[in-house]
Design brief:
The protein has about 160 residues and is α+β, with helices and mostly antiparallel strands. The chain folds into 2 domains: about 30 residues, no CATH class; about 100 residues, PRC-barrel domain (SH3 type barrels, Roll). The longest helix has 12 residues. Helices cover about 25% and strands about 25% of the residues.
Length: about 160
C-alpha cells in the first residue's frame, strides 16, 4: 500500500527507492516505478511545475517556469520565476510572476498569463545571480506594483 501511494505521487517516468518502516534504511530497499495517476486532481508537485511552459492569451510561448517562490510563514506560493531568452543558459533573464496571475491551460499543458510580449519586456527582470540573492521581503513591492496594474494579476487574493 505504501509503495502504491508513493508511486502515485512521483513524477512521471521516475524511479526511486522506498524505505519501509520494516526495512527503514536497508541497503536493499524496494524499487518502485510509478504509474501515472488515473485522476490528476488539482494538486501538483513543484518538481512537475518546474519546466512547464508559460504562454500569453494569444498562445505565444513567453518562457518556462524555473522555480516557485514560497512564503516561509504562510506556505503559499508567491511567485513563479519564469526564464526566457538566452541560448544554452547564456544571457537568460528571469521574471517573478505573481502566482495568482497564472492559470493552467489543460489544452496547452502550460500556464497562461495576461501579458503581451511588450508588457513582459517592460516588467521587472533579473539575472540568475539577482534571482538567487533577491530579498523578497524588502523588494517584492517593485514586482507587486508592476503586475498589480494588469488585469488578471490585480484584485486576486494571494
Amino acid at each position: 500500500m505504501q509503495a502504491a501511494a508513493a508511486a502515485r505521487l512521483a513524477p512521471k517516468d521516475a524511479a526511486f527507492f522506498l524505505h519501509t518502516k520494516d526495512n527503514p534504511m536497508s541497503s536493499n530497499p524496494t524499487t518502485v516505478t510509478p504509474t501515472p495517476p488515473t485522476n490528476s486532481g488539482s494538486l501538483i508537485s513543484s518538481e512537475r511545475v518546474t519546466g512547464t511552459n508559460v504562454y500569453n492569451r494569444d498562445r505565444e510561448k513567453l518562457g518556462s517556469v524555473e522555480a516557485l517562490m514560497i512564503d516561509k510563514m504562510s506556505g503559499q506560493v508567491r511567485f513563479a520565476v519564469m526564464s526566457f531568452g538566452g541560448f544554452l543558459g547564456m544571457g537568460e533573464k528571469y521574471h517573478q510572476l505573481p502566482w495568482n496571475g497564472l492559470s493552467y491551460d489543460l489544452d496547452n499543458k502550460g500556464y497562461v498569463v495576461n501579458l503581451t510580449r511588450d508588457a513582459l519586456n517592460a516588467a521587472p527582470m533579473f539575472t540568475r545571480d539577482e534571482i538567487d540573492s533577491f530579498d523578497y521581503g524588502s523588494n517584492s513591492d517593485e514586482i507587486d506594483s508592476y503586475y498589480g496594474k494588469i488585469d488578471g494579476f490585480r484584485n486576486r487574493a494571494n
